[in-house]
């Protein structure tokens, strides 16, 4: 269920800029940043760049663009 959340004008402007580049809505960009931040907080030992690649790969698999890697397969 959508909730209204107040954010600073600075964050809203920055989100609008990135949203335009990434093809997201402003709300979608803020949600993306929140998700990325949550995952980074839960996995502090991983670099953010690796977390982003993992999230992209998972989305690709969900959308049928890639197949999941099975460890030990093909050895």
Task: Provide a descriptive summary of the structure in words.
The structure is a single chain. With 75 residues, the protein is mainly alpha-helical. The protein has a domain at 30-68. The protein has helices at 9-22, 26-42, 48-62.
- What is the approximate shape? elongated
Which band does the percent of strand residues land in? under 5%
Oligomer: single chain
Following the backbone from N to C, one meets helices and strands in this order, namely: HHH
Q: How many DSSP-defined strands? A: 0
- Report the biggest beta sheet as strand number plus sense, adding barrel if it closes: none
The secondary-structure class comes to mainly alpha
Any low-confidence stretches, pLDDT <50, length ≥5? Answer: none
């Amino acid at each position: 269920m959508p909730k209204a959340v107040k954010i600073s004008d600075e964050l809203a402007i920055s989100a609008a800029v990135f949203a335009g580049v990434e093809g997201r809505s402003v709300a979608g960009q803020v949600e993306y940043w929140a998700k990325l931040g949550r995952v980074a907080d839960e996995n502090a030992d991983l670099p953010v760049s690796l977390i982003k690649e993992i999230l992209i790969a998972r989305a690709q698999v969900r959308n049928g663009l890639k197949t999941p890697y099975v460890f030990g397969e093909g050895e």
